[in-house]
Write a structure and sequence with these properties.
Distance between the termini: 93 Å
Shape: elongated
Largest sheet: 5 strands, mixed
Number of strands: 7
Radius of gyration: 27 Å
Strand order of the largest sheet: 3-2-1-6-7
Length: 192
Amino acid sequence: MAIRKTPEINGGSMADISFLILVFFLMVSTMDKEEGLSRRLPPLPSEDQKVEDQKVNRRNIIQVKINSNDRLYAGSEMMDVSQLKDKIKEFLTNPYDDPTLPEKEMREIAGLGQYPVSKGVISLQNDRGTSYSKYIEVQNELVKAINELRDQFAMQQYGKKFIKLDETKQDIVRKAIPQSISEAEPKDVKKK
């Protein structure tokens, strides 16, 4: 009986095919991009810089607080998250020149001229026990309020929504409707 040799499979072309399939899937698949909250942090102060106390008129600040039970307070009233956007829009625009709402300061904006800009600042503070989902939900409502105000302004001035404007006009809208959100350090109500 003759000894039969086992036939070999040519693996060279299989490696090439595997490589091509890998490259194909890398080219056509997408990776989810994680996005955070868009915030510009102030630059670090130099070591020799003196700390200055800034006087801010109380009427120019609205305190938005989320407690450990995920209850939301804007100003002194408890509210649902769905009401927050309208409260913030009214606060920032002060449509009836209410003396309890923020002042407006006339500013020269290049490309627009003199425009009354709100001095309103949103101060957000949460508790250490606040759920992350409630924190993000409140953040989204605050940004949504500012985005809607920017869209309204852009429609009045340019007949287009903010996102459809060119960079120069978007910069004008940002100066007219600034995003002034201040985040205070979270409190820990369990510590006394």
